[in-house]
Amino acid sequence: METLPPCPQCQSAFVYEDGALLICPECGHEWAKDGAGGSGGDAGDTGPAVRDSVGNVLADGDTVTVIKDLKVKGSSSIVKVGTKVKNIRLVDGDHDIDCTIPGIGAMGLKSEFVKKSS
């Protein structure tokens, strides 16, 4: 049986495979199997990919659908389930998606409340 390399961030030995990725359950770091050092491929990739509620990887410019009614802080508005949001931008932070929602305006969303649309 093949032994997996330790996590490049926290050196944990409890790494597991998930498709084409290696994942550390202790720190959450993900990296490609072929770039076992974690520094292969993209120079701009600094951490785990942003994933939607069902595990699809999101990218800048994607279209997503809201999966839950969301209250807008500081307003009586609600973002309804099924609202399509086009041309998202991924950012670092708690709310990892910046977007413009039709009828409401610019705001930040958490990726756990959206699903990638085709």
UniProtKB/TrEMBL annotation:
Record domain Protein YjdM C-terminal: where: 50-116
Domain Protein YjdM N-terminal as annotated: residue spans: 3-32
Superkingdom classification of source: Bacteria
A Pfam family annotated for this UniProt entry: YjdM
Database matches in NCBIfam families: phnA
Family (UniProt): Belongs to the YjdM family.
Protein known as: Alkylphosphonate utilization protein
Organism: Pacificispira spongiicola
